[in-house]
Structures are given as structure tokens and as C-alpha cells.
Automatic annotation (TrEMBL):
Alphabetical list of InterPro entries matching this protein: RraB-like_sf (IPR036701), RraB_dom (IPR009671)
A Pfam entry, by short name: RraB
Regulator of ribonuclease activity B domain ranges (all copies): 11-108
Entries under SUPFAM superfamilies matching the protein: Hypothetical protein VC0424 (SSF89946)
Lineage, highest ranks first: Bacteria, Pseudomonadati, Pseudomonadota, Gammaproteobacteria, Moraxellales
Source organism of the structure: Acinetobacter faecalis
Protein name: Ribonuclease E inhibitor RraB
Amino acid sequence: MSRDYQQFPDDDNGNVLWQMAEDGDDLTVAHEIEYSIAFKNQETAEKCALFLLNEEQKISLFQDEETDEWFITIYVYMEPDYSDIVDLEEWFTKIGTEYNGEYDGWGCMAYVYDDEDEDLDTEQPA
């Protein structure tokens, strides 16, 4: 299979999506993609979490015990399409900045099936 740089540009997002496709993941099927925003303190993380909930986003909020940072994970059920991922990254970056947070990337479970259709889940971070 030859890489289509229109569909899989040569950057982090394109490389992860290309690797998922190369591994046999069906990118035309919706996945639950997890986007993360990091915060230095609980108060700003909670304010951002309330904003995202008001935007009808499915989220989780937790504190990393090692770094004491707070993280919001936003769960978006979507087909892993490059332009849609980039658009959401821009939106979450803007929101993170407005609440003194920092966008921290995305990831999702890749569903790869071998010849016997056995599920071989692997995590694909970006």
C-alpha cells in the first residue's frame, strides 16, 4: 500500500493515522478518540471541565499523582480523519489556552484484525 500524502500528511497526526492504516485498522469506522488538556491547578481544570460539559462533551478529570498536574480527557466518537482531528486539536488548544491549560495530544484504540478476525487492540498516541 502506497501512502497518500493528501490523506496522511507528513506530520505527527498523519504519521499516526498512516501507521494505524498500515496496521490494518479500518479508519472508515468510528473510534473513540481521546484528546487531553493539562492544567497546573485544580481550579482552572474544573472551570474548563464545566465549559466542556456545557458544550456537551464527554470528559473525565483527574490529577496525575506523579506530576500533580490536572488533566481533562475529552472523548469524541468519530472516524479518525486527518482534517477533523486537526480541527478538534485547534479547538481544544484554544480552549486550553483560555483556561490556562495546555493541549496535550490525542490517542485512540486501534482495532486490528488478523486473518481469523481476532481482536488485537493497540493504543495509538499522537
